[in-house]
Model the fold of this input.
Amino acid sequence: MSTLSQNTDGFPVDLNGFVRQCAWCRRVADIEGRYRLVSPTLVHGASHGCCEACAIRFLSRGGKKPLAA
Done:
C-alpha cells in the first residue's frame, strides 16, 4: 500500500477511498494493511472483505457444513 488518507470516522482509507473492514470480526485494516483496528459496528461505505484470521478460521473448517444458529 502506498499513501493513504483518513476518512471522517478516523479509519484509514485505501487509494480507492474505501475503509477495508472484515465483515465477520469487524476489524479494520490500518495504514499498513493489517487488520488491527476494531470497530464496534460495520463501517458504512466500507469495503467488506475477510481478514487473515477469519479466512484461516473458515478455511480450516474444510468442507464442513455451517454451524446451525
Notes: The chain is about 15% helix and 25% strand. The longest helix spans residues 52-60.
